[in-house]
Design brief:
Distance between the termini: 33 Å
Strand order of the largest sheet: 1-2-3-4-6-5
Shape: globular
Number of helices: 3
Oligomer: single chain
Order of helices and strands: HEEEHEHEE
Helix content: 10-25%
Largest sheet: 6 strands, mixed
Strand content: 35-45%
Low-confidence stretches: none
């Protein structure tokens, strides 16, 4: 919880952090973050994604992913997006490609250039 609270604090450009929240009937059922990588220029990271267990299977995660991709493309002329995911097929359909052959904890690193 401490990590999430720290991440929700605003960050000054160029190292921004931005969150998107999905609500149903006034209840937060999904959240997804995007932030600037502080170690590489023009690099953005999709992170801290979660959907409430009772709200899964409704397309909320896909919508939060699509919204974050659209936001970064609208706000930056070019760059790259990174994500560490256990759902590589979902991200491959969106134009991400696998980076390397290694898996860590069931997750793979994927990249999209725009």
């Amino acid at each position: 919880m401490t990590r999430i609270i720290e991440q929700l604090q605003t960050a000054a450009p160029p190292f921004y952090r931005h969150f998107f929240i999905c609500r149903q009937h006034g209840e937060v059922v999904g959240v997804g973050g995007i932030k600037a990588a502080d170690w590489a220029s023009d690099t953005h990271i999709l992170y801290l994604s979660a959907v409430a267990e009772h709200a899964r299977g409704q397309g909320i995660a896909r919508s939060l992913i699509a919204t974050r991709i659209a936001w970064v493309m609208e706000n930056f002329p070019s760059g790259r997006l990174l994500v560490s995911t256990a759902r590589s097929r979902r991200f491959a359909r969106l134009g991400f490609r696998l980076m390397g052959k290694r898996e860590a904890g069931g997750r793979r690193l994927m990249l999209m250039e725009f």
